[in-house]
Amino acid sequence: MHPHLHTKDNKGCDEVMTALEECHAQGFLVKISGTCNDAKTAVNKCLRAERLKRQRKNLEEAMLRRAQTEAIWKELDEEI
Fold first, then answer.
1. Of 48, 61, 65, 57, which is closest to residue 12 (Cα–Cα)?
2. Is 4 helix (H, G, I), strand (E, B) or coil?
3. Is the Cα torsion angle 33, 16, 41, 1 positive or negative in sign?
4. Is the pLDDT of residue 66 over 90?
5. What is the DSSP letter of 1?
6. Nearest-angstrom CA–CA distance, 7 and 5
7. How would DSSP label each residue in 47-64?
8. Under DSSP, is residue 41 helix (H, G, I), strand (E, B) or coil?
9. pTM across the whole model
10. Phi, psi angle pair for 27, to nearest 5°
């Protein structure tokens, strides 16, 4: 299973998601016969790459906020 495909966080995967949707639109037998497996794997890899980018960005922002918070705490400790 994968998250909702067409969201603001997954804009980099539009092409591979469209390819998967087109494959699925070909019919039920195409889906269950494994014809769409390559497209599904490509979508999974793309979504993982997008998620890892978001994680790195969030971690960097969190580290920056933490450093700012610790600087404020240090100032407050020095005032006391």
1. 48
2. coil
3. negative
4. yes
5. -
6. 6
7. HHHHHHHHHHHHHHHHHH
8. helix
9. 0.76
10. 135, 165
